[in-house]
Amino acid sequence: MTKPVNTKYGYVTPQEAKIDAQLDKWYKDKKRRAKQHGAFSLDKNKEAQHAKNKKMPLS
Predict the structure, then answer these.
(1) Predicted local confidence at residue 29, as pLDDT
(2) 5 Cβ partners below 8 Å, 6+ apart?
(3) What is the rounded distance in angstroms from the CA atom of residue 15 to the CA atom of residue 24?
(4) Nearest Cα to 16, choosing from 5, 31, 25, 27?
(5) Which positions of the chain have pLDDT values less than 70?
(6) What CA–CA distance (Å, rounded) separates 52 from 11?
(7) How many whole angstroms separate alpha carbon 42 and alpha carbon 55?
(8) Are 12 and 20 in contact (CB under 8 A)?
(9) pLDDT of residue 46
(10) pTM here?
(11) Contact in structure between 12 and 4 (CB atoms under 8 Å)
C-alpha cells in the first residue's frame, strides 16, 4: 500500500497528487491564456459587437 501524501486537497495517494498537480497547472494556464486574449474584457466584446451591427454606407 502506498503512503498517503498531504496536499491542499487533503491526504491522497501519490498518483492522485500527481494528477491534481497536472490539473492545477492546466487550469492555471487556461486562465492565463483567457486573460491574455481578453476573454473577460466586457468592454472589448461590446465594441466588437457594435462594429458588427453597423451598416456600411452605400457609395
Answers:
(1) 92
(2) 11, 12, 13, 14, 17
(3) 14
(4) 5
(5) 39-59
(6) 52
(7) 22
(8) yes
(9) 56
(10) 0.57
(11) yes
